[in-house]
Prior knowledge:
Elements: H1 8-25, H2 45-56, H3 66-74, E1 118-122, E2 143-147, H4 148-154, E3 167-168, E4 174-177, E5 186-189, H5 195-208, H6 221-224, H7 237-249, H8 254-267, H9 272-275, H10 278-283, E6 298-303, E7 306-310, E8 320-326, E9 348-352, E10 357-359, E11 368-377, E12 384-385, E13 393-397
Antiparallel strand pairs: 1-2, 3-4, 4-5, 6-7, 7-10, 8-9, 8-11, 11-12, 11-13
Helix pairs in contact: 1-3, 5-7
Amino acid sequence: MLKTGQTPLQHLRIVFLLAVLSLLYSAVSGQIPPGYYNTASGKTGETLQIALYNIIKGHTSLSYDNLWGAFYATDSKANDSVWDMYSDIPGGTPPYQFYFGSEQCGTGGSGGYEGDCYSREHSFPKSWFGGTISPMYTDLFHIYPADQYVNNYHSDNPYGNVTAPSWTSLNLSKSGPSSTPGYTGTVFEPIDTYKGDFARSYFYMATRYENVIATWKNYNPNGAAVLDGSSYPAYQTWYLNMLIQWHTQDPVSAKEIARNDSIYKIQHNRNPYIDHPEYVGAVWAPPTIWPEPTSYPASFSAHNIHLQWVDATGPVIPAGYLVRLGTSGFASIPTPVDGTTYPDTGTDQHVLFGVQNVWFKNLNPNTIYYFKLFGYSGSGASIDYKTDGTVPQIQQATGQ
């Protein structure tokens, strides 16, 4: 069936190209191969990220021109139109639709107005990694067909949340100053339905290019606002928080699963964060307060300032304990603050879960010391101390 604006010759060319692509892509199964993620089992944090990098690295890289053809397999709607996340209105009627081939930029238009033509959008801007550098430049996991006019508003700005847009697209994507805490520059906000798609593309980029992303920070000022110059966590805290929120609020969709399978047929690697959404939390634990431990240790006792206890139990067990010392009564011992870590000193000692004892040494003789024991979960900015109820405490005097 001819689409609006298509000539018979253009229609025949599209049918032929689809047939060729079907033959090429049907040769490889798009499903997750058995055992594909076995080497990632049981790992968390940076260790998991590196394991995933080793699984998905070395993919088959396309030429830039071949991206147009790949979109037929990766980004086609049921009606054979282009799945453009910058113009689509899920559950509604899009203001316009693009059709493959005849309406791609350079063939069907130049992007001079919204709805003119679709382009190859680097959702992770190419200027952030140095331009036409292989294989990032043609990696389909962050490249989508998109309205060129709207693409220009995204430009090389970060994604972000916008409450006072300076420009709004026909499907209500927005450009304007960031309202995400931690950044006030210009950002581009896609509609809610696709925020998770873009977030998982960014988690993929940090993982697939774990070996080089630390060098990208200074290529572009907008990239520098997002990248932190490290392999892990790779992104600035404000951006990582937002990506995790987008990932959580917009779960993996059937569209993403099908796209992941289609890209696997072409590139022979996968986006782990689509196959296993839980990997996002396992790799990048959000820097928020964790659930506190359920209860305190039992049998808290002291032997010559050698403190001992029995580990706490319950649904949430501690990651460890902070034992604090005071010299003028229990009230002199400050209560730790969630999200704050305290270095080991003469008055603070950290003990891992399972150790169940600690020594305080080099104390004054014939002196009474006071101790409190706080369990905590998480670590770093996510640490959560148990401070309610009756905090275990004990006093002990040193000898001669």
